[in-house]
Known about the structure:
By secondary structure, this protein is an alpha/beta fold. The chain has 10 helices and 16 strands.
Amino acid sequence: MNPYSFPPLFYFILLTAAVFGCATPRVEVLPSVPPRMEAKIFQDFVAVVVQEGDTINSLAGKYMKDPSLAFLITEFNEIDELRAGQELIIPLTFFEKGGLSPRGYQTVPVLSYHNFSLAGANKSTVTQQVFEEQMGLLRKKGFHVITIDQLFDFLDFSRQIPKKSVVITIDDGWRSAFDIALPILKKYGYPATLFVYTDLIVGSEKTLSWDLVQEMARQGIDIQCHSKTHRNLTLMGKRESFKEYVESVERELSECAQIIKKRLNKDVKYFAYPYGDTNLLVTHLLKKQGYRGAFTVKRGSNPFFLNPYEIQRSMIYGDFSLDQFEKNLSLFSDEALR
């Protein structure tokens, strides 16, 4: 059988793709060429002709063995849909790690919520209707909600993520996270992280119980630490010696992790600072205790080169309009790297 013949321009595209992908980690490739010769497999990419019935997800599953990497196909080829007979490049490497491009660099917004209500909003409480509208806007605008692990793989320069990536976090441990936020997150299939301060998890009318936290974890919510008592870790008590202050901070970090381990059989890796405040001592103690990173509430999006213990989050206030919400979704900076 003769090889499939591609136009000269197609081979030029293949050559360009090989140059860009030569130094990145490999994604495992299926060992055989499909019998209809609709594809040619090269070292760092696959050149395909789209067949009837192909989808972007099915091609990612076939050649990259992971449908969740379909965004690599759409972003490399700058397409939104397929048509039969279309010539396509399937990259087998991460071709834009760190979101770096000749135009600038990617930034990832992290959203911070606290409480939810059926009606009635304030600075820290978002109504059910508004939260639904915000999650719907993310879907309408084509955002990919990613996990904190995926965010940190991006920050470590070890993984490419979709250009329109966003992270959702919820702080404290209020009952409304289960009653209101969880069903909406499940409706859209969005992952999220719940940062709990463990002294709050008492199962009252307004707070989560450990049974509910366990149920949220079973339904895919990532549970991480927000301290034990929610004290400001940067401020010494009036009658605290420096030694007592350091020991207290160490307990806030360690006991939260120990309680979550006991209750959920889960090792935590991430921390959200109470009030968003940190200092060099707190950061040192987090590293000492094995935390991979930590989150502030400094408003702004996150490039790959940001300090992983000072990840920025944008608090979403209950009185935000959709336009104000969308202004917290910055995805790119064309500022020169110096």
